[in-house]
Write a structure and sequence with these properties.
Helix content is 38%, strand content 10%. It has 14 helices and nine strands. It is elongated.
Length: 417
């Protein structure tokens, strides 16, 4: 099949936005990148698109949210790509639909498409899914079920294995090449046929709710950010570490670490079988203060937030009763000179707000690498405490006799020969 004429050299770029679930490293000291295979897929797609089109020199064939990209402030760079890309390519996997960040990216692109809905409310076709790990169609959330896509052109091996299976097995190299070229042609075809206007980028896309709420993992987890937003900072506090919402807080922000701390927490949680629902202290207050837990939770507490009267009151309510299913992490950063100078005062403020936090499910961390080391253990302990504390509900209906093993004579009596 010959692809349609490619858009002209003055059209918007990038051609596509690759939306994928970050795989966190289990060992921050290791240099190998757990996302390197996704990066290879991205690079191969870009190479194909550059060969299939007349994309002008210097224009981006695609965008992938790659960590450690010096000089690019996340999430401003990411929001710009969502506002200008021609095609949105979600990379399906179980981890993808458990990712709050991926859900926000999808929601932001849907918001942009909504400006081009026809009179019947139908959105233009600008989402081209790809399989990283195959999923049964019935397991997809409704928003993904509504996206029509076919895999026939990419071959049966792709349908059964996904890109990850093809890329990892050397004997499937030809099937991988076929699948990537077919996907690149599909991206170019959709970009040529469907034109959506560029929007003004806004980092406030983080406020969008994930459309994956009906995708239910086995172990949901609340990740609560007790931090101020830029508009609610304590007087004189350096705004460098904060975002437009509490969820944008990153106490370890630098050129090589620009993602919010909650995004790291969600990645770590996903790697250990949890789906994180990220929210502010105000948004999660009712569930965190309930005496009947609905699930394990972890609370990320900015020491500066504890100097605000409203946050103090909410934290004391959460602290009441020593809720062991709520893990507490208090990050410190001595490279932040203001925090280092005020550490003693801030330490007292934290202790006054959370005097009853159990030691086994709470921790102070002094670096992002320490956060990666500590959080998995704390998540496990909070989950174990939840399962010990959660009420058990017997099934509806009349009680049944307690089952027991039958000896051979019993079985013979019930099933005579």
């Amino acid at each position: 099949m010959v692809p349609p004429p490619a858009p002209g050299p003055n059209d918007q770029s990038p051609y596509f936005f690759l939306s994928y679930a970050h795989i966190p490293s289990h060992d921050p000291a290791r240099r190998d990148d757990p996302n390197r295979w996704v990066k290879k897929l991205f690079e191969d797609l870009c190479e194909h698109i550059n060969n299939l089109t007349n994309l002008r020199p210097g224009a981006a064939a695609g965008f992938m949210d790659v960590e450690l990209r010096s000089g690019h402030h996340w999430p401003e760079r990411l929001s710009e790509a969502l506002a200008t890309c021609r095609v949105f390519v979600p990379l399906y996997s179980p981890r993808y639909f458990e990712s709050e960040q991926c859900g926000k990216e999808w929601a932001a692109f849907l918001h942009r498409l909504s400006n081009h809905a026809n009179p019947e409310g139908q959105l233009p076709e600008a989402i081209v899914p790809a399989l990283w790990i195959p999923l049964p169609p019935h397991q997809l959330p409704e928003v993904a079920k509504s996206i029509q896509f076919a895999h026939e052109g990419q071959g049966p091996r792709y349908r059964d294995e996904g890109f990850y299976g093809l890329i990892k097995v050397s004997s499937m190299r030809s099937q991988y090449q076929r699948a990537t070229l077919t996907l690149a042609r599909r991206i170019v075809e959709v970009a040529a046929r469907t034109r959506i206007s560029v929007m003004n980028p806004t980092p406030e896309y983080q406020a969008f709710a994930s459309p994956f709420r009906d995708y239910l993992p086995q172990r949901p987890l609340k990740v609560t950010v007790a931090a101020p937003s830029l508009s609610g900072l304590p007087k004189g506090r350096n705004p460098y570490y904060y975002g437009h919402t509490p969820q944008g807080w990153n106490p370890y922000r630098c050129e090589t670490s620009t993602r919010p701390l909650a995004a790291y927490a969600a990645d770590i949680a996903a790697a250990h079988g949890f789906q994180a629902e990220i929210g502010s202290l105000e948004e999660h207050a009712n569930e965190l203060t309930s005496e009947t837990p609905l699930g394990p939770a972890v609370m990320l507490v900015d020491p500066w937030a504890t100097t605000r009267a409203d946050c103090q009151a909410q934290l004391r309510k959460v602290d009441r009763g020593g809720k062991r299913w709520v893990g507490v992490v208090v990050p410190w950063n001595d490279d932040d000179g203001q925090t280092a100078r005020e550490r003693a005062r801030l330490r007292r403020s934290v202790d006054q707000c959370l005097p009853g936090r159990p030691s086994e499910t709470s921790a102070d961390v002094d670096s992002l690498s320490a956060f990666h080391r500590v959080l998995p253990d704390l998540l496990g302990k909070a989950a174990n405490q939840f399962f010990r504390t959660a009420p058990a509900y017997p099934p509806a209906g009349p009680s049944s006799r307690k089952p027991r093993l039958m000896d051979p004579e019993d079985r013979h009596d019930q099933h005579p020969g």
